[in-house]
Write a structure and sequence with these properties.
- The chain is of the alpha+beta class.
- The protein has one domain (5-240).
- 16% of the residues lie in helices and 26% in strands.
- The protein contains three helices and ten strands; from the N terminus they run ββββααββαββββ.
- Strands 1-2-3-8-7 form a five-stranded mixed beta barrel.
- It is globular and about 55 Å long.
- The relative contact order is 0.23.
Length: 257
């Protein structure tokens, strides 16, 4: 079945890189957004490595594209939709100062209806970018800007430091689970079981290999859109696995080749 697709307009707080020794395949980011009735911490788990069953390490490298000046009708639709949804909350109940500050700029998480294709990502059908421009890099390497996490780190640091900057994150939401004291936290906020919300599957979610076929769907691809209002600029980050197909069924999102 398709993933539980969400979009979160997120304020960035911190980030942590993975490396091969850690065994993690994710770059992890700590953000905040209005979710489930209050401002909450949100963990973003971004794949920088796949679990491809191959003897060649480079086959596990994630394909990615960074569009430094992303221009598409999607951005206007996103801003309008999120502001409209925030206005509904602003007028329905008393709010704390922090809640009002987030909602006044439309910073919330929402589950868009399947019919709202104008704000959902589809790498195959929405004309977002040219897949031929995607490249691969290792998840970590010793030099500067020679691995995927270096590029992500630069963008998230800028989003954290620039006033008014937010990141629209597209993927599947996970909800709080019982606190496990034996599991080391990625960030200090994870120590509070009431704040373990997060987004993952922040990558293409169609054309999967058979073992992940159940997660296929259309208009449910993950990704990152960085908005820097003071520069009047959007930056798009799109990620996919090398074994995913770009020829997919228009109903199921299953691979056709």
């Amino acid at each position: 079945m398709p993933i539980d697709y969400w979009i979160a307009k997120t304020r960035i707080v911190a980030q942590r890189s993975a490396n091969r020794q850690s065994g993690s395949v994710h770059h992890r980011v700590h953000g905040q957004t209005f979710l489930n009735g209050q401002v909450r911490d949100l963990q973003l788990a971004i794949n920088v490595l796949s679990r491809a069953s191959s003897t060649h390490p480079e086959d596990s490298h994630v394909r990615f594209l960074i569009e430094p000046d992303f221009q598409h009708p999607l951005t206007l639709h996103l801003e309008n939709h999120f502001q409209q949804e925030a206005e509904k909350i602003l007028t329905t109940r008393p709010l704390t100062r922090a809640e009002r500050q987030f909602l006044e700029v439309g910073a919330l998480a929402l589950r868009p209806a399947p019919t709202h294709t104008e704000i959902r990502l589809d790498y195959v059908r929405s004309g977002l970018f040219d897949p031929a421009l995607m490249q691969t890099l290792p998840p970590s390497a010793p030099g500067k800007l020679d691995d995927l996490q270096d590029h992500l780190r630069v963008l998230f640091s800028k989003a954290r430091d620039q006033r008014g900057a937010f990141v629209y994150v597209f993927g599947e939401m996970w909800m709080p689970k019982p606190f496990d004291p034996g599991r080391p936290p990625v960030f200090p906020f994870e120590e509070d079981p009431g704040r373990q919300f997060g987004l993952h599957d922040i990558h293409m979610n169609q054309g999967n290999e058979p073992r992940f076929k159940a997660a296929d769907g259309i208009h449910q691809d993950g990704g990152l859109l960085f908005h820097f209002p003071h520069e009047n600029r959007w930056v798009g980050v799109f990620l996919a696995f090398q074994n995913q197909s770009w020829y997919t069924d228009d109903q199921s999102g299953h691979a056709l080749d």
